[in-house]
Amino acid sequence: MSITLKDVEHVANLARLELTDAEKAQFTDQLNAILKYAEKLNELDTENVEPTSHVLPITNVMRDDVRKESLPIEKVLLNAPDEEDGQIKVPAVLE
Amino acid sequence: MALFDLRLQEVHNKLNNKELSVTELVDASYARIKETEPAIKAFLTLNEDNARTEAHALDKRLGDGGEHGLLFGLPAGIKDNIVTEGLLTTCASQFLSNYNPIYSATSARKLKEADAVTIGKLNMDEFAMGGSNENSSFYPTRNPWNTEYVPGGSSGGSAASVAAGQVYFSLGSDTGGSIRQPAAYCGIVGLKPTYGLVSRFGLVAFASSLDQIGPLTKNVEDAAYVLQAIAGYDASDSTSANVEIPDYTAALTGDVKGLRIGVPKEYLGAGIDPRVKEAVMNALKVYESLGATWEEVSLPHTDYAIATYYLLASSEASSNLARFDGVRYGVRADNPDNLIDLYRKSRSQGFGPEVKRRIMLGTYALSSGYYDAYYLKAQKVRTLIKQDFDNVFNQYDLIIGPTAPTPAFRIGEQIGDPLTMYLNDICTIPVSLAGVPAISVPCGTADGLPIGLQIIGKAFDESTVLRAAHAFEAHTDHHKLRPQL
Questions:
Q1: 3-state DSSP assignment of residue B75
Q2: What is the similarity comment for this entry (chain A) (predicted)?
Q3: What is the pTM of this model?
Q4: Which of A37, B114, B290, B400 is 20 to 30 A from A69 via CA?
């Protein structure tokens, strides 16, 4: 498998990145090199191997459904780039 | 910095005997920073006013005979991906250059509860992605032993600040070697605890199944004290391990008689600098002389670890870093056409090249049609790598090898070649994938640059790791060497 410039553009769109032409060309080369290296994993037969997503034997950590205090609104908005009436402001979602 | 060469117990004795005050310790820290920071550049933000206020409060408590926390009065540096309420936390990224956290990480809170004084926030590779600190989007930190060389990374600022005597100890984070490798390059002690031992709450996530916070110190005993202060179950971290926390300093008996050590042949083969190999072999002789035994063992899937790691860590990163969209915090791009354009522009302007590269790799590995071939395959190989460790630990108490294949490299030497840069992590990444604890301790030098010995233990057996590291330190002088600054 090798990555084309078109693949890089597709992935950049998925990742919500806007790349310059120079970045696209560079990432095409570098991702190809990294993925070519990663192909060595295919030397291993993993047909009957379970995947490890986590090393600890922990599943579904639950807590009691107890009501807790929320963060005060001033604190939540402290880092917001734009705000209005106690809410975070963004450009229109629907045109 | 003679003051910071004192052992923790000696510092506390002097404080108790009124030969020293916390204010003097904090003053010494900032004086040393002023003197050395132009050459080292370990810090991104200083906490000077607050630190001096805290020092006064601690001195008052000392005078009143009040209680003392475990790390009472010690000047500490914190890696800049650990959030600290009211103190800028940037992850060395332009994206978060204005981020003022509204809460503190559990580890930062525990340092405060132990009465350590936060001196400032430490430089790193952007979002902890890198092994040289050259990926900081502000400026690279330099190695105190030779400022033409990298301090390692991603916790490069954490390692350099301790090595330069700017702080008494620091916290770093380790995903594939980011505590151990810079500790090795800077000639200090760095401990990556077992995955889940230290809460990740408030650690800005890079690869959630691998990230772990740990101490960087001048000696093993101090590492044990800092670990004692930060370890433990935390309900705020759903991957926190609910295990009994032992007394780590009680484990430092000096006795390693009968310990069985496995030495992986894969960690001393091709690509390992002969001077590094020699330093490791000399260390094994020290263990022999102390009554421990060692044998060559094999971790047969070592060669697959880097590919596995970069697929898994980048995939997790691409998902974790989706939260940086310019909406709730961080630097928002000006004049976006619409909401999607706001995400795109903010992320493209805010992230540096290595972060973009890993987001791209991870997004590709998780994308439709490639998930099984890359991500799932890597998760399966991770199982095989973990089994390698399980098999060796059935017969041995510890695994010992080098921390990194070479001493530090020159700034700029590898920055254009990501794959070569990734290979520096060949001895640390498998350990991270297995989730087990490991420490790096100084074991020699080559051309004036330090070499690190890596001691790897069973899951949650930090006590044996620390005991072995402490015994080695007690019978060698490598940890006493200091850079000339």
A1: strand
A2: Belongs to the GatC family.
A3: 0.97
A4: B114
